[in-house]
Write a structure and sequence with these properties.
The protein has helices at residues 5-12, 17-32, 56-68, 78-91, 98-106, 111-125, 130-144, 148-159, 165-173, 179-188, 216-224. By secondary structure, it is mostly helical.
């Protein structure tokens, strides 16, 4: 470690964006150099001085510390470490740091229980803004890219989420599901058909999945009355019809 412990601690407690970033970087350096020292585990709020879009590398440093640092005092149990990682992934959704977090989840021996616990936490937590919604969607999407047992555990946990968050996430992942998964998830939703799309017009620059099903008869009648299929009026039919 090339800097004294006291300097790193002072940086982390400074409330200065630059100093906090330097403190996290040097704490990771100490960890990777097998030169850890006792320090209070940082909370997610430590990143607030860096604004709404901290550099991705700073978020990765925080996640790495939650994953590997062994000298936290008091120590954090695994579930709390991952909850803090997930909180970062949600608060800073546009960074897609959720990819880093889900990669760590997938290699854990207890990954299925961890997935259930973390997705239950997300459900209880809810969503505060569009960036967080995007972060939640990316988190779930990345879990679905895991092996079959990870994918199944993710869908099971998602099926018991509360509305409207469940709907808004299911809309996003629906195109990535197999027909069997769609049927099973539809049954869990009490529908047995694809979900009704939401009007989340622009979520952090990413367009949500939308399906427009037009009933030809009613559309033809509207055109004859002088309307246009591009008039901006919605003739979206219910799914499954």
């Amino acid at each position: 470690m090339w800097r004294p412990e006291e300097e790193i601690r002072a940086d982390l407690q400074s409330g200065s964006a630059e100093r906090v970033a330097n403190g996290l970087r040097d704490l990771v350096d100490a960890m990777e150099g097998f030169d850890e020292f006792p320090i209070a585990p940082p909370g997610v709020e430590i990143l607030e001085p860096l604004g709404f879009e901290p550099p991705r590398e700073v978020l990765d440093w925080f996640v790495a510390l939650m994953d590997q640092y062994e000298e936290f005092e008091p120590d954090l149990e695994e579930g709390e470490r991952f909850r803090r990682m997930v909180e970062v992934a949600l608060r800073y959704g546009k960074s897609r740091v959720a990819t880093h977090v889900t990669d760590l989840v997938k290699i854990r021996a207890n990954k299925l229980k961890l997935i259930a616990d973390l997705l239950s936490y997300v459900d209880r937590r809810g969503v505060g803004n569009n960036d967080e919604l995007y972060g939640i969607r990316v988190f779930v999407e990345e879990l679905l890219d895991g092996v079959d047992e990870v994918r199944s555990a993710t869908l099971r946990a998602l099926s018991v989420w509360r509305e409207p968050l469940r709907r808004r996430v299911v809309d996003w992942i629906w195109p990535k599901l197999t027909e069997t998964e769609k049927q099973e998830l539809g049954e869990a939703l009490g529908e047995g058909a694809p979900p009704k799309p939401e009007a989340d017009a622009a979520v952090s620059g990413a367009l949500p999945w939308k399906v427009i099903a037009v009933e030809i008869g009613s559309e033809w009648r509207r055109i004859r009355r002088g309307g246009s299929i591009h008039s901006g009026r919605s003739d979206t039919a219910r799914f499954g019809r």
